[in-house]
Structures are given as C-alpha cells and as structure tokens.
Write a structure and sequence with these properties.
- The complex is a heterodimer.
- Chain A is built from eight helices and 18 strands.
- By secondary structure, chain A is an alpha/beta fold.
- In chain A, the strands form four sheets. In chain A, strands 7-11-6-1-4-5-12 form a seven-stranded parallel β-sheet, sandwiched between helices. In chain A, strands 15-14-16-17-18 form a five-stranded parallel β-sheet. A three-stranded antiparallel β-sheet of chain A has the order 8-9-10, with no helix packed on it.
- In chain A, a hairpin with a 2-residue loop joins strand 2 and strand 3.
- Chain A is globular.
- The termini of chain A are far apart.
- Chain B is α/β, with parallel strands linked by helices.
- In chain B, strands 9-8-7-10-6-1-4-5-11 form a nine-stranded mixed β-sheet, with helices on both faces.
- Chain B is globular and about 65 Å long.
- Classes of the chains: A alpha/beta, B alpha/beta.
- Chains A and B meet through helix 3, helix 4, strand 7, strand 9 and strand 10 of A and helix 3, helix 4, strand 7, strand 8 and strand 9 of B.
- Strand 10 of chain A pairs antiparallel with strand 12 of chain B, so a sheet runs across the interface.
- Chain B: Keywords: Electron transport, Transport.
Chain lengths: 324, 245
C-alpha cells in the first residue's frame, strides 16, 4: 500500500506546502511501513518534479495537459481519486490551502473516505482508527478527530508540519486519462497574483497592523518592516472593514487564521476574535501605546509605545542586524 | 431564479469557548447563538441577486427545534421561506448529505454556503454538495456576479485572486467581500413570524469520523516587555531567545 500526496504548484514551481505534505506523508509512512507516492497536476518540469525525492517521495506521478494548466477543483478531484484507486492508496494527503479546501471534501466524497480537515498533528494510529488534532472554534480550541473509515483523506494546515529532508530515489510516471467534460466546465478568465508579496497563509513571519495606524496612508512603514523581515502583511477586521486594506489581509475568527513562527501586531488592541486567528503563532510580539491592551496578555514580547516612533526604530535595528 | 442558502447556527464570535469536565462536549451554558457570519454574507448576496422579483431565496439549516430563532433571523433579513432538517448536525458530511438529499429535485439555480462555519471550521459543505449534486463548486468566493445563466466568481488564492466563469447551477462558498450582512428591520422581523418554515425528517447517515475530545490552548508565559527606548533589544531577543529571525 502507498500513501498518496497531492502536491500544489504555482506556475510550475512547487509551493512550500508541497514539501510540507510530502514530509508529513513520509513521517506517516515510517509509522505505518508504507511508501509515499506524490501526484502533481499541471505543467511541472521533470527537474522540479524530482525535487520531491529529497523529502521522501518514492514515486512521482505527473498529470500534465493543457486542460489542467489552471486549477479546477472538480477535474483535479477526479484525477486524485482516480490515481488513489489505481495505486490502491488508502490514505490521501493534501494541503489545507485555499485550493485544498475546495478539493479535499470532493476527493473524500468520491472515495467515501473519512476526512480530517486542517490537521495540525501526525495521526495516533490504532488499526483502522486514526486520531488527529485540528483546530476548532476558529482556533479558540483544539479537537481530537477520530477517522473511522478504511480510506482516509487528510488536509494538512500550512505551517503545521516542518519540511524534513529524507532523500530517496524516485521513479517518475505520467498520468494520462480522459477528464470527463462536465468536470472541466469552469473557465478561468484571469489570475491575479502579486509575485513580490509573501502569501499570508504560508508566511513564516507576519507583520499585522490595526486601527492604531490611524489611516491607510500610514501603511508604508508596515510594508517596509515586512520587507526587511521577508514577511507577509496582515490587518485587523476594523481595518479591512474600513477598506484601508483588502479583506484578504484580515486575520481573525472571520478572516484568515495564521500560524507563523513570528506574528508582530502593531496598534491592534487584541479583541477575542482577532486573538483566535493568531493564537497558534509560535512567537507573538505586540507594539501598542496602551499598556492595558488585551493583546499583551497573549504576547511573548511587547513594547508599550507609539507605533510611529517604535516601528521606524525597529526597521533600523533589523537592517543593522541583517547587515551583520 | 431559485437560490438556496445553507445556514449554520453557531456561538456568537465574542463567546469564550469552554468544555465539559470530561472534555467531550462543548459547554453551551450562557452562549448566544447567531447565524454563522459567512452564511450571513451568503444570504445578503442571495437577497441582492433575487431583488426586484428576479428570484426567490430559501434558507436551509440542519438542526433541532432550538435553532428556529436563528432561522427566523434569516427570514427577518429577507429570505422568502425556510427549511429545517430535523436532526442534530453530526459533522459537515452529515449536514451536506441532508441538504443534498433535499435539494436534488428542487431545481435550484444557485446554492450558497458560507466558506466555513466558525465553530468546526470545516469549509467542507460547498464542495461536498457540489460532488453529491454533480455540480461545479467554488469554496472561497470573494465576489459573485450573475448575468443570465453565467456566474462570474472571484476565488481567493494564495497572494491573489482568480476570476472564474461558470454556468448555473453551481454551489459557492462565500467569504468576506461578497456582500455585507443585512440587518433586519422591524417590518422584516414582523413578517418573519408568518413566513413558511418547513420541518423535514432527516435521512439516516452513518458517520465516518467523530470528535472524541477537545482541548483549550495552553496559556502563554508572561509577556517580556522591552523598553521603548531600546528597540534593538527586541531584535536580540527574537534572534537569541525566540530564535525566529
């Protein structure tokens, strides 16, 4: 038996999540004495495909045709389920990315599989019964989810499992099959992607700012700080509601839940809904002029002070550190 | 045009989440329930699309009679009628299968759900419904437009967006940006009392997964405050102590 992993690419380059899910699958394969088969969909060159060997993929299957150059969840789900059947895979692993969320439930439904959505742990395995941890109540709690079907689909949260090298040599195969026409009935008209920006859900460092910044014209220093750190920018709900920043930057219970290594909150008081979205960050830094701001209660490091004075100093200090 | 909006009854966003002593169930004491915020967005968009006699909006929810006040709120916001499938919702698959069973012969042109519920955060129902009803689905939509029978949908992707075009019928999960939730006015609240709410028996569906325990996050240690006059110390701490830069 093998574990099947679906790996995502952007314009032919694997995403960080691709290496995360292969590393994660390899760790499960070691627990269950299995092998890892990776499935890539869309055009990815052989040189890029073989990178997956480094993380433990023993077989790499590429499904590449013009019809598949853009993500269509229905067509991709068809291929993943089809390959799972061909390979006799009983465990299918993918990233809980924006695309993964549209894919995993369809794959699980096709295979009548139990689905762990947004797993953040390795499974505890007792025969056919696998228990995984996922976040619940928008990261205000964790749930232990027990999967009780012979076929299992696991979607792994971004940044929940560290990439681990585990070099093997892989065989490369291609998948060729007709995709049912109905599965291709969505037309992609336009893809807009800011190539110079770090993607928020996958970011290892996030610089986030709130109403304390007083207006959208003051975001220059936030972007500069993010730039120095190689970080993604984010914001609180009042800021996106006021259209100072796009909704895609809103972190919190009704926005994006992030789990970076470092979350820097600037001028955000720390309402319970915002804290829910950041509570699984490894290290939290809070900069706020109000010493009573609730955010300080969940922070690891804090500076009580005016953002307009502290942030430029922090940028200078970081540039000095990076320059060393 | 017939639109179906799937809504979920969830704890208010300000709720403090606690569990029973054995950590097996969610503590409901003192919790206020609301329409899941993402579902409110779905409902608002559906009402806009159907405005001016262009269509009808039905809301559907899976739950016991205790969720009727939440369903009435959706009717007060402007939905024409409501369906409740009478069962405690076990998980997303259970809910989606109940809704698919109801919707399969009803001829809906558009089925909307919130991108995820804020309690179990599955983000599953839209995609499972799409699969069960053999329809296209988009799970995280930021914008939905409809011209004749063609939907134009913006989907969230890492670091950007995709613009998609697809025919109805389709299932779409809505995120922020699609619409702003509608606040019911007095007339809506009065009329909601007499709008039809049909209660249907649930299908038997066996579960494939189960939540066996809950945990609350471990509290963080006390905050280390850095002197605002010595910002470079923060950089040192992040490098040497936290090891994150």
């Amino acid at each position: 038996m093998s574990l099947l992993v679906y790996v995502e690419n952007t314009d032919g380059k694997f995403k960080k999540s691709a290496f995360e899910v292969v590393s994660y699958a390899k760790a499960i394969a070691a627990l269950t004495n299995n092998t890892v088969t990776a499935l890539s969909i869309g055009h990815v060159a052989a040189e890029e495909l073989t990178k997956l060997q480094k993380y433990g993929a023993e077989k790499i299957i590429s499904a590449d045709s013009n019809q598949l150059s853009n993500f269509i969840n229905r067509a991709y789900a068809h291929i993943i389920a089809d390959v799972a059947k061909q390979q006799g895979a009983q465990v299918i692993i993918l990233s809980n990315s924006f695309s993964g969320k549209g894919l995993a439930p369809r794959v699980a439904t096709k295979l009548d599989a139990a689905l762990a959505d947004g797993a953040i742990s390795l499974p505890e395995i007792q025969g056919d019964n696998w228990t995984l941890t996922k976040s619940a109540f928008s990261a205000k709690a964790f749930a232990k989810l027990s999967l009780q079907a012979p076929i299992k689909v696991i979607s792994l949260n971004p940044n929940a499992f560290e990439v681990q090298e585990n070099e093997v040599s892989a065989q490369l195969e291609t998948y060729e099959s007709q995709i049912p026409a109905a599965d291709l009935g969505v037309l992609i008209k336009e893809v807009v992607r800011a190539t110079d920006k770090v993607s928020l859900p996958e970011a290892e460092i996030v610089v986030s700012a709130g109403r304390g910044l007083k207006g959208p014209e003051n975001w220059g220093m936030i972007e500069e700080l993010a730039d120095v750190l190689g970080a993604a920018t984010a914001c609180s709900k009042p800021v996106s509601d006021a259209d100072w920043r796009p909704h895609s930057e809103h972190v919190g219970q009704t926005g994006i839940v992030v789990s970076p290594n470092l979350y820097i909150a600037i001028g955000i008081s720390g309402a319970i809904q915002h804290l829910a979205g950041v509570s699984s960050s490894k290290t939290i830094v809070v900069i706020n002029k109000d010493p009573e701001a609730p955010f300080f209660k969940v922070a690891d490091y804090g500076i009580v002070g005016d953002a307009f004075e502290i942030v430029p100093q922090l940028i200078t200090a970081l540039k000095a550190y990076k320059g060393q | 045009m017939k639109i179906l909006v799937c809504i979920s009854n969830v704890p208010d966003t300000t709720s403090k989440i606690t569990f029973s002593a054995d950590n097996r169930s969610f503590n409901q004491t003192g919790i206020q329930y609301i329409i899941n915020p993402y579902d409110e967005i779905a409902l608002a968009r559906a009402l806009d699309l159907a405005e001016g006699g262009k269509g009808t909006v039905t809301v559907i929810s899976v739950g016991e009679a205790s969720i009727d006040p939440t369903i009435r709120k959706a009717l007060a916001a402007g939905a024409d009628d409501a369906v409740r499938i009478d069962a405690a919702p076990k998980d997303a698959r259970f809910v989606a299968k109940q809704i698919a069973h109801y919707a399969k012969d009803q001829g809906y042109d558009l089925i909307l759900t919130g991108r995820e519920s804020i309690d179990y955060n599955g983000a599953q129902v839209a995609a499972i419904l799409g699969e069960l009803l053999a329809l296209p689905s988009i799970s995280i939509a930021k914008k939905i437009d409809l011209t004749d029978n063609t939907l134009t949908v913006e989907r969230e992707i890492e670091g950007g967006k995709e613009v998609l075009s697809l025919p109805t019928p389709a299932v779409i999960g809505t995120a922020e940006g699609v619409a702003i939730a509608k606040i019911p006015n007095m007339r809506g609240i009065m009329s909601a009392r007499t709008k039809p709410l049909t209660v249907l028996a649930a299908e038997e569906i066996s579960s494939l997964s189960e939540i066996i325990a809950y945990e609350t996050p471990a509290p963080r240690g006390k905050v280390t405050l850095v002197d605002p006059g010595n910002v470079s110390q923060l950089v040192d701490l992040l490098h040497t102590q936290a090891k994150v830069i």
